[in-house]
Amino acid sequence: MRVCRSLAEFQILRKAIPPVKNVGLVPTMGALHRGHLSLMELAKSQCDIVISTIFVNPTQFGPNEDLSKYPRQEIEDIKKLEQSKHVDYLLLPTVEDVYPKGFSTFVNVEGIDEQKEAKSRPGHFRGVTTVVSKLFNMTQPQKAYFGAKDAMQCIVIKKMVRDLNIPIEIVIGQTLREPDGLAMSSRNVYLSEQDRKISTILYKSLSAAEQLWNLGKGSHCEVHTSASNLVQEILKVLSQEPSVLVDYISVGSRADGSELSIVDYHEGAIISLAVKLGTTRLIDNIELLPK
Ligand code: AMP
After folding, report:
1. Domain 186-288 carries which CATH code?
2. Which residues contact 86 (CB under 8 A, 6 or more apart)?
3. What is the pTM of this model?
4. Quick check: CB of 112 below 6 Å from ligand 1?
């Protein structure tokens, strides 16, 4: 694996990749875990060359978020990537590479303001779409890989690619979980031992809603259910752990993430939630598959 610590160094190597090669990109913010590595493995199974990037993107963090304490584990990350053998080039651009002095151009997918993750983190998706489009331009892949763990991010990036005619196929990899159900995340290292145990309640609550959904879906007389039924089921489970503070529970369209009040059994939905546990914000989601 070639490790490039600057864009200039990477660009020389990128030019040398023959145009016939199929290139896949896996952008990350580092502190790599098996969820990240699964995306790289998927990329390697579909592409000749895999490029990954590690960049903790300042523009997607709000003023009261964890930018300065976001885990940075460059040496361990490089070791993991070397061992996995899925990545050919690792680009670690500098902040100046991505946001040179005088930078003032942003990419913004409009019309997502009512979506709960967007509301909860104002400006977050603008930072994501800006950095992702810049990483696309820097690496010029044919395919780019993102995790279903960040459900709204997937929807927003697919929309950006469609709206701007970006000639890149977006591939979504499934969420990898710890054996007890907690979705893998770089932020899980923030959890105290006690909170780590409590955190399993997130997936338990989503699974309870999924069970309710499957029950209704199996019934011949029902055509839809109300989103509030599903939300109540989740709240019932989460209330077993009073230290879990719910930021939001969203029942959104699988197509565009817009909030649903009624969910058609033939359409399905994505239930996403965000909670605060101690000082850590955790997100997770589950897809309710249609009939
Ligand atoms: P991040 O480093 O958190 O920006 O994540 C980089 C990519 O890895 C994003 O596309 C995430 O959606 C994806 N990802 C994060 N956690 C997981 C997970 N548990 N399973 C699969 N993909 C993940």
Report:
1. 3.30.1300.10
2. 37, 40, 41, 43, 44, 50
3. 0.97
4. no
